[in-house]
Amino acid sequence: MPHFLDDDSDDDNVSDPFDVSDAALAAALMEAEIEDQAELERRMELRRAAASSFSAGARVRRGPDWKWGDQDGGAGNAGTITEVDSDGWVRVKWDKGSSNKYRTEKAGGTDLIEATVGEYVVSGAGGICASTINGTYSYTRQHNSAPLYTKEGGRAILYYGGGQYGWRMSDTDNTGGWYYSKKGSSGSVPCGQWTKDGYSGSDVLPCPTVARVGDDSAGGRPQLTGVSTLCVGARVHVKRSVSNPTYGWGGVTHDKVGIVKRVDPDGDLKVDFPDHSGWTGKSSDMEVVTASTTVSTATQL
């Protein structure tokens, strides 16, 4: 279990402090004393991105104005838009929940955002965390007046706990304990190498690295060498043992490496290759590219 300390307060904010408008969002950030312009811009960008992604068939998850409990089956779960109304409400069928209607910006709130956009990549975590921590993380809710990020397809979280340990990482949705931290951090999620400060065990080494998805600086484009699962953000190619992919080659070869952009419940993947965006494949046909994988570097993203 993660180490528990009582050096600071980790009480969850049960209700989202953000109102439905950008003006209210900015006011709430100032009231919460979050002096982070980058975070304000990130939240507004989420709203702008959401406005362009609401169409039948789009994959979504709870957004910054979510107030509907666990109708989606819990934070981090995704669903599919089945109806779009002219008044700005859309119907979503959740993968792990029921079907219901939610607000878009036109209806006065951003209940939903695109489910396929990962924001941070954690890689290199070892020991007992190798299979639970590594992956792509996206915003799911607020905690301690800061964003909380949940691993796509998992329960691990990145969260701000305050105090001397700042940002922390847990393998379960539990803000009372952690395995990794970035001591003294505040503001946005700190990228780079994290440590196990606050956790006394040695069964989680090596410690992971955190990078923004698509960020080629300070950690480079996420290599995900510690990730063994096909998650959003993973670098993949067609397995050498596959002679004919389920949905055909479509210009892709064994040597071409792409980035997973979507993972559907039925195992289908959407992958962006250098010369073929939106390629569809079966997860059983693909494998994650690791440091030991032999591919042609000329065809990598």
TrEMBL record:
Residues 46-118 form the MIB/HERC2 domain. Pathway: Protein modification; protein ubiquitination. This is E3 ubiquitin-protein ligase herc2. It comes from the Eukaryota. One of its GO terms (cellular component) is cytoplasm. InterPro entries: Mib_Herc2, Mib_Herc2_sf, SH3_15. PROSITE patterns: MIB_HERC2 (PS51416). GO terms for biological process: protein ubiquitination. It comes from Chrysochromulina tobinii. Keywords: Metal-binding, Repeat, Transferase, Ubl conjugation pathway, Zinc, Zinc-finger. One of its GO terms (molecular function) is ubiquitin-protein transferase activity. It holds the Pfam family MIB_HERC2.
